[in-house]
TrEMBL record:
Zn(2+) binds at residues 200, 203, 241, 246. In contrast to class I sirtuins, class III sirtuins have only weak deacetylase activity. Difference in substrate specificity is probably due to a larger hydrophobic pocket with 2 residues (Tyr-136 and Arg-139) that bind to malonylated and succinylated substrates and define the specificity. Keywords: Cytoplasm, Metal-binding, Mitochondrion, NAD, Nucleus, Transferase, Transit peptide, Zinc. It comes from Paramormyrops kingsleyae. Belongs to the sirtuin family. Class III subfamily. The active site is at residue 192. The keyword Transferase applies. The gene is SIRT5. Substrate binds at residues 136, 139. This is NAD-dependent protein deacylase sirtuin-5, mitochondrial. NAD(+) binds at residues 92-111, 174-177, 283-285, 309-311, 327. PROSITE patterns: SIRTUIN. NCBIfam families: PRK00481.1-3. The keyword Mitochondrion applies.
Amino acid sequence: MYFLDKQLILGVSSIYTQKNEEADVINVCFSVCERGSGFRQLVPRRLVAHLRYGAGEAGRRIPLVEMSRPSSDLAEFRKVFAKAKHIAIITGAGVSAESGVPTFRGAGGYWRKWQAQDLATPEAFSRNPSRVWEFYHYRREVMLSKSPNAAHSAISECEARLSRQGRSVVVITQNIDELHRRAGSRHVLEIHGSLFKTRCVNCGHVAENYKSPICAALHGKGAPDPNTRDAKIAVEDLPRCEEDSCKGLLRPHVVWFGETLDPDILTQVEKELEICDLCLVVGTSSVVYPAAMFAPQVAARGVPVAEFNMETTPATMRFAFHFQGPCGTTLPPALERHETEVI
């Protein structure tokens, strides 16, 4: 089996951060291409070794294998696609960005005067739950106004079509906007959670919640303008748990900086990556860990990996294919019905 130990992934994802990404998750400063240069300063040598090698039978370590320059030949990719039985599609913020979803990254990636990593932490929520809920209320309301784009649709249509042929497609997404589900994808693993789920800090109950606004006190709040003042909503007026009269404070059910990923979700991801015979990496910068490790691990066991992105990434040279451009443009022709499909 070629896959990093799940406890290692959980441990690394809960300790090391790089505060320059938009996702509400832990980032690890590790460039796959540079084989850990700069990373050694942050991670003990033994962890670098684990990240650079996979586990073979009887604990034998398998070095990650460099691949030749990736191909951009769509016809060749289509030949591989036609034969694939289990396709894993890993998606990131680039897919959602084409639907107009704010990514909260880079120089302009602010909500008021804060970036996501300033608000998306357990500590921030503990200090100022009202401000954090304003931020997530704004994001929820924005998402309710957005629609899936051509890339989302191509993936969902491909899944539905191939399922009738006894083939499978799984979406492993870092996005928390549920656009894949809204596009019709059924087999979706949301490794960072969902904007439209809440978790009670008291009883732990997780529930879907599509209310707009999520509570009366947040109505009209959450404006992103830097001159907007905090609403300073009383804690008792923020979203509360409705499970068995619990009334505990709710929080967004997303993975925040400093938190580990759900081990059950990671187990499902591991199983899917073990059986996939084709992997697509769509709209992701391949620097957010542990998700950035997934596709290189698949490639290292000889499975074709195709990257669809606006630019090259630290992992590009490990993949068999690279298609540069908007995902909504490059992905549909790659996933459309192949002439050999009988259904």
